[in-house]
Amino acid sequence: MRQTSDTAGSGRISKRARIWNGARIVAGFIVIIVGLLLSLPGIPGPGLAIAVLGLAMLAPHFEWAQRLQDWGKRKLEQAKARVRNRRKTPGA
Question: How confident is the prediction for the chain on average, in pLDDT?
């Protein structure tokens, strides 16, 4: 976990900071679950976008979430590069 103003100096996290961290983690998992449910066929809504938001909420707290978020960013950049290259190619 990153060192914040709550942990600076003493190395201990205040009770209030622990409560907020716990609340953010629970909210992140809930947002991911809601996003995945909304991404099911036949259910309208921006499901995957909401799931990505939940992942962003969890990334500061969990290394696996940060790695997954970084992987997604790399894939998005690759997809954008492919689209740009297709537009530049004449006759494609």
Answer: 86
Contacts of 65 (CB under 8 A, 6+ apart): 28, 55, 58, 59
* Beta-carbon contacts of residue 50 (< 8 Å; ≥ 6 apart): 31, 34, 35, 38
DSSP conformational letter for 9: T
Answer for the pair 37, 29: CB distance below 8 angstroms, yes or no: no
pLDDT of residue 18: 92
Contact between 54 and 35 (Cβ < 8 Å): yes
How is residue 58 written in tokens? 């969890």
Q: Which of 27, 57, 54, 51 lies closest to 39, judged by CA?
A: 51
Q: Using the structure block, give the residue that is written with the tokens 């983690």.
A: 25
Q: Is the pLDDT of residue 86 over 80?
A: yes
pLDDT tens digits for range 42-57: 888 899 899 999 999 9
